[in-house]
Structures are given as structure tokens and as C-alpha cells.
Specification:
The protein has 14 helices and 12 strands. By secondary structure, it is α/β, with parallel strands linked by helices.
Length: about 350
């Protein structure tokens, strides 16, 4: 039986690969999943009922990343040598690329951030690098571009149908406006040297936006005590329904901003370095509003949020924009499935 190993290092990777995993299994491919604890990655795999090999927790900081490299290279190699997968697939996993190379197996790597430090460590060892067309990086002959965003792997209409149960979970009347705020931990490799919104800034964001609608906060890092009452408390699997029905998404997560764009919810993305895909989602579709220059742009980001919340634009206005985005794109899960099956036949 042909086999594939999918390496998971972040909660977003669970969503990215979950439909591919299940589709390959239905096709008769044996799929092995390895995972490291990062935020809610393990909990998401359990909710999705995806069997996996837990390789441990991510270690933060520069010294932690060196420890990760040594520890997970060894653990993944040891496990993979026993199961002998034909293909490795991941989102920019250094460990998967190294292990595949050592075992003489093919490796497919997805990349959408353009993180130079990380790509230097996996690029020589992987066989195929899949990137969205909007990523203005040249990875040479190994690169294959696709017309989509990673979030379309799981939020494309083929795979995601929103439901209204979120209002009950939030204890809100159906249709009531609310705002989602997202804060991140800043421990990823592309976050080295970058600080997030301060505790004072977090409080300011919540208090200012609360003047317009009910606010819920989801955060990778502990919230100040003053913000504890705002904490979002829903099953992890319901987050995309929450994004779909929100009036606005505001925060530091590029992934959640892109998810909002795909689902037709306007978002304000506040981050020092920005992302190619959120820039395109602003320039081409007007769904994400990027504030990336410096920490003093927080006031400007809040002004944009207030402008969106007080604009006469209806929900349908934003939905039409996302409809155009989806029409311009392919189903990434279908693309990945066809590629993996093709490579397994070689």
C-alpha cells in the first residue's frame, strides 16, 4: 500500500492538510501524521479524529529552535525509518525535508510566508516547493505555483459550509453583530525580533472596539486580567463559523485575516512584516486592510476598524468580494491530492 507522512507543526497545518489526509485515506493511501505541540495543534487533531504520532512540544526562542532542530530531526527520522513512507508532505517543515532526504524519499513542501531563514534549512533537501502565485519568491526549478491561498484548502465551498449555531455558542441572539480579535505569541521563526501588541495596546483595542459591538478575543498568549471576560470560549472546530458570522476580524494573525477574506468577513491585520497574500487580498479584493509599518500604526488600524464598522456596506457587499476571490482561485486540496497521487505513481 502506498503511504504518505504529513508533518504538523502548527494549528493552521491541521486545517491545511485535514481534507487531503481524509481524501488520500479514502483513495487507499496509508497516511501517517506526526505532530508537535504548538498552541492548539494537538487538540485540533483530536477533534478531527486524526490519528497521529506526538513528537513533543515546540521549544521557544533561538536556543529552543536549535533544540527543536536536533530533537525533532532525530525523533522524526527514528519514527519514519520504522514506517517507511513513500512521500513526506508538510508546510515548511525542516524536519520532514531532512528526514526524507536521509531516507531517500520524496518531499513536498508548502510555503506561503517566504521565510528566508527557514527555507534555507529545508530547500536543499526537499523535492517540490508549492507556493501561491502571490508569493514573490523564486525557489528555482523545485517551485510549483498555484492560484490559491492556503486557507482555500479547508474553506473552499467544496469543503466548508457555514452554520448558524455559533450564535448559541456565543450566547448571542442570531444575527447580532460581534467582533473577533486575535493576538499571537510571536514565537514562530518568522517572528524572531518582532514584538506583538503590548498589554496596554490589547486593552485599548478591546475597549475601543467594544463601543461598536460585542468583542471576543482569541489569543496564543495569556491575556491581561482585564481582558479575561472577553476570551472566546467555543470548541476549536467552530472558529471558522465564528469568523464567517463576525462583523470584523482584527488582530495579529495573518492566517485568520486570510481566513476572514476567504469567508467574506473584512479584517484589519496588524503586523510589522506583513504577508504577500494579505497584501494581495487588500490590493485585489479589498477584504484585508494591512497595517505593517511600525507599532505606531495601531491607532490607524483602529481607525480603519471603526470605519468598517460604521460603513453603510451590507454583509452581502463583503460576501460578493469573497465570491470573486474564490472564483479566481483553485481548490488547493484538489491540487495537492492530484499532485500526491501523481508522485506516488512514479
Amino acid at each position: 500500500m502506498p503511504s504518505v507522512l504529513v508533518d504538523i507543526g502548527h494549528p493552521a497545518h491541521v486545517h491545511l492538510f485535514k481534507h487531503l489526509i481524509k481524501r488520500l485515506q479514502r483513495h487507499g493511501v496509508e497516511v501517517f501524521v506526526t505532530a508537535r505541540k504548538k498552541d492548539i495543534s494537538i487538540e485540533l487533531l483530536e477533534e478531527e479524529k486524526i490519528e497521529f504520532k506526538h513528537l513533543g512540544n515546540n521549544h521557544p526562542g533561538l536556543t529552543g529552535k536549535l533544540k527543536n532542530l536536533l530533537e525533532y530531526d532525530y525523533l522524526l527520522y527514528k519514527y519514519s525509518k520504522s514506517i517507511k513512507p513513500d512521500i513526506f508532505i508538510s508546510h515548511s517543515s525542516i524536519y520532514a525535508a531532512h528526514t526524507a532526504f536521509l531516507l531517500g524519499k520524496k518531499c513536498i513542501t508548502l510555503e506561503d510566508t517566504g521565510n528566508a531563514d527557514q527555507s534555507l534549512l529545508y530547500r536543499p533537501f526537499t523535492d517540490i516547493i508549492l507556493t501561491p502565485e502571490c508569493l514573490r519568491k523564486n525557489y528555482g526549478r523545485k517551485q510549483k505555483r498555484y492560484k490559491a491561498y492556503h486557507e482555500l484548502a479547508y474553506l473552499h465551498p467544496h469543503y466548508f459550509v457555514p452554520v448558524n449555531n455559533i450564535f448559541g455558542l456565543l450566547n448571542l441572539p442570531e444575527g447580532q453583530q460581534y467582533i473577533l480579535i486575535r493576538f499571537v505569541s510571536r514565537v514562530s521563526s518568522h517572528d524572531v525580533g518582532i514584538k506583538g501588541i503590548t498589554a496596554e495596546g490589547q486593552i485599548k483595542v478591546a475597549e475601543e472596539l467594544s463601543k461598536f459591538a460585542k468583542v471576543f478575543i482569541t489569543s496564543e498568549r495569556p491575556l491581561p486580567s482585564k481582558l479575561q471576560p472577553f476570551q472566546l470560549k467555543i470548541p476549536y472546530s467552530e472558529i471558522h463559523n465564528a469568523i464567517y458570522h463576525a462583523s470584523l476580524v482584527f488582530g495579529e494573525s495573518a492566517t485568520m485575516s486570510s481566513e476572514a477574506a476567504v469567508l467574506g468577513t473584512p479584517s484589519v491585520f496588524f503586523d510589522k512584516i506583513g504577508r504577500y497574500y494579505t497584501q494581495e487580498q487588500e490590493e485585489k479584493y479589498g477584504l484585508v486592510f494591512n497595517f505593517t509599518r511600525n507599532q505606531y500604526d495601531l491607532d490607524k488600524a483602529l481607525e480603519k476598524a471603526k470605519e468598517i464598522l460604521t460603513s453603510p456596506h451590507s454583509r452581502e457587499y463583503w460576501r460578493e468580494k469573497s465570491k470573486k476571490l474564490v472564483e479566481d482561485s483553485i481548490s488547493l486540496t484538489d491540487f495537492m491530492f492530484d499532485l500526491v497521487i501523481s508522485e506516488l505513481k512514479k
